[in-house]
Amino acid sequence: MSTQPETAVDADVVRRLEEEGEIAADYLEELLDITDLDGDIEIDVDHGRAAVEILAEDGDDASLQQLIGRDGEVLDALQELTRLAVQTRTGERSRLMLDIAGHRARRRAELVAVAKEAIERVRESGTPVPLAPMNPFERKVVHDAVADAGLVSDSEGVEPHRRVVVRPA
Fold first, then answer.
1. Alpha helical stretches, state H, the chain
2. C-beta separation of 137 from 150 below 8 A
3. pTM above the 0.85 mark?
């Protein structure tokens, strides 16, 4: 049994996640300098994770598109590299989420719409609905939306063809 009050433990977790965000921001600042790109970095704690976003300084996201890549592939790779940089400094695995120019936020909204459509199809037909292959971030968003709707889902297949299947409860 812990002798620390729950709020002290929560404060410790938030402090650790803020530290992860600071380490990630330092790493990403160096990356922006090397690539000669301008960007502002915002740090937050969201759903028990450090969350870092690179935003265009001048509001023109086009300059940051090369850091996103086709279908977010470069963004996914940068997130993994940033997590490794954090892990190297802290000695602990990081679940940090990286967003660039709002790409993940926009994709999250698209995926929730896809999930809602699949949920309705399952409710109408009573049969499972397989979705297109998705990366781990995308599958998590869909799984969360399906769970919130009271249905079940699981992932099938092997990367890069792993997909969510939405099923009746």
1. 6-35, 73-90, 103-125, 136-148
2. no
3. no
